[in-house]
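Message: A physicist's question: would you kindly supply an amino acid chain plus fold tokens?
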Amino acid sequence: KLLQKKGKWKKGVNALADIPDVVQEYAGVELDAYFDTAKAEYLLFHDSTESERLPVESMVGRLSELGFNGSLWLDFKNLAAENEQLALRRLIELVSRYHLDSRIVVESGRPEFLQSFCRAGFFTSYYVPFFNPYLIGAEERTAHARLIAEQCRNYPVSALSGYYFQFPFLEENFPGMPLLTWVENPRWSLVNYFFQRKLHGEPSLLAILTY
């Protein structure tokens, strides 16, 4: 279960400098996390070329000091069979230490490795494969829908997540399934602007990350 708090979510908060000045006004923040098995620690960074790799506990601790009580969207970049159990134990420790019950989204493109997080009571999201439904034919769209449905049958999760332009496809093919998405700053695109206006009124949408 995920505690719901109305408002905007901030994408890519991976360094202390990325924390918004008014973080208390956000419903949630997204963290790009890699699990370092040798250190038994989540590290925050988006690309492997980045030199700064902040331990997630440093971020969570700072957010707590600032009075942030929103949710944390953990984009788990390297979830695998080799780190699943250790990563789960570490996350349970962080939840207990910082009182994060029902405030964590664990997202991965590998739903088979999310199952232990599901059993532990975490809100999980399957990051669906990248494709643009508007640039492919009906047959390919059907194939994507079947693949996602098969994954969900075999590896149940709490929600699905994908790019804003995938949202109508996911909503149509998976009615009743909670959805999460992200969209670029609408100042740069009229299409993004209208998509974001539409998305904010969708009852199935739990969160919209913005840059």
The CA atoms of residues 64 and 98 lie 7 Å apart. The first strand starts at residue 9 and ends at 10. The longest helix spans residues 138-154. The chain has a mean pLDDT of 90.
